[in-house]
Amino acid sequence: MNKIALITGISGQDGAYLGKLLLDKGYTVIGADRRSARDDKWRLRNLGIENRIIIEDFELSEISQIIRIFNKYKISEVYNLAAQSFVGSSFVNPISTSDVTGIGVLRILEVIRNLKYKPKFYQASSSEMFGAVLESPQKMTTPFNPVSPYAIAKLFAHYTTINYRKAYDMFAVSGICFNHESPLRGEDFITRKITTGLSKIKAGLLDCLEVGNIDAKRDWGFAGDYVNAMWLMLQQKKARDYIIATGKTYTVRQFINEAVKHFGFNTYWVGKNENEKLKLKKNNKVIIKINKKFYRPNEVNKLLGDTSLTEKHLKWKPTVEFKSLVQMMSLSDLKIFNKL
Ligand code: NDP
Ligand code: GDP
User: For residue 261, what are the domain limits?
Assistant: First the structure.
């Protein structure tokens, strides 16, 4: 019998890649989606799966919608990817972020606990929970130290998932994912902000890109790899949590330096701190500058994941390294914005 998977956050980056992976494996995929006036199916279209996913109305704050979906289908695997996922916005909207990203998970788990059948549950936890890191690299035993409303909400969701696993013997697990990117990444996140920004500059649609802290370091991987680890976690005999990362870390500045090459820009940095600028060698035109508005009230300076246990147990390894990831995203955006 073919398995039915429910993916919340189907319109997001990971939702699209995971939807494609599960369809390719023969699953029936229910995509939980909050209706909006915007075109939120572009990622599914991009991967050619828009018409193969059964879309159901879903809002994480509405428990009745969650109950309705679980009563309508006999779901084998739930992947909870829906969240207010942007750290920057969580400082502006801390209460709604806590409600959706934190309590939303409790709503789903409460609904599952009261079902007659027991689907497996995956929670999208985040490396942001390590926050102002207390150990490097971060592994499963590293203490959490969150420094944003987003990370605190994710930590609530993380512990809630563990609690339901232990208290009610549910197959409920969390993947602590470090940053993962792709051509389908939201444009607010720094990697895609850089590749769309440089593409727009190249196409004459933007003069100069403004960014925040370019010394922040992240362990960046490819989203297509990470959804595979999510699936593997639900295929194990034992329910347990894992770190999903590459084990390498780079600064935002290194991402920029790598990306400019794909746009044919010959550049150099001048100035210090908030006066730092990236200029074109040929005419000294400034193409990137710092705007303090993009600094976070609390910053996570460096993230680096240790995946030794994940690799051993899940036989999982990332396949796309940093340079290829920057190239993939740059070339994709070059194509999009130079056609406009
Ligand atoms: P996206 O921001 O691309 O997708 C988030 C999804 O959640 C969107 O489909 C969005 O819908 C949906 N959503 C937001 N609010 C609600 C709500 N109130 N009710 C229902 N759905 C809602 O995130 P990613 O795909 O990149 O990430 C997937 C998950 O993994 C998220 O939970 C994220 O926090 C987590 N994560 C991601 C990391 C990364 O680097 N990508 C790292 C660690 C964790 P809409 O389109 O309508 O906004
Ligand atoms: P996060 O790790 O989930 O917060 O992912 P982001 O891509 O939003 O940010 C990664 C890092 O880039 C953080 O340390 C940000 O402070 C830093 N950064 C620097 N400039 C910017 C910017 O203009 N936008 C965003 N989103 N992040 C920036």
Answer: 190-216+251-299+325-338
